[in-house]
Amino acid sequence: MFEYHLWKAGPLTAEEHLLQAAEILDQQRLGEFVAVMWEIWNERNRIIFGQRPQGTHRNLAARAVQFVKNYRDFKEQESPPLAPRAMWWKPPPTGIYKLNFDAGKIEDNWNGWGFVIRNHVGDVVLAGVKQNMGFSSPEEEEARACYYALRTASTYDFRQLIVEGDCQSLINKLNRREVPNNSLGFFLSEILSLWANFEFLVRSFVKR
After folding, report:
1. Which residue among 11, 67, 169, 171 is buried most deeply as judged by most CB within 10 Å?
2. Is the pTM of this model over 0.70?
3. Where do the domains of the chain lie, and which CATH numbers do they carry?
């Protein structure tokens, strides 16, 4: 049981817990574990900044696990048949990391953002998921997912990135530094302001 290993290990950092989980859990359980950790972190921040807690610890864990399930179900419904091999994910050059981000609608009034960063051999070095009530346009949700991913990558000191997203209109606007005067423009402006934190950053469209 992973719970036994978790408690037996004693006090560990979040990174050490993730490394331990990656060695023991399968892909589905690992995704759920990461989502629960992120939900606990969000709840901690809500308490620190005087916001209203979202529920009990049990409710937080159940909501995180349900979010992962809903996200997977959504992607299975949206996923087209397998693409030719040439269109599969390709690793970045040595010393460069590749960040893939995505957004999706969860049930009627929830949205989800997620990202994963891999190194040149395809190992996952950082990942995150987040959910929020309400849903705007698909393009704006993709922009929010991109902003969330880049902000997290910057926090963890990733400085050389290839950023891939499956929303071509968003990638085109970012490459042209096009900032419309609306709510989408707000997030595009925030994304562009984050670029100064990176030594090397490439924006690329990739088909889902």
Report:
1. 67
2. no
3. 2-78 (no CATH), 85-205 (3.30.420.10)
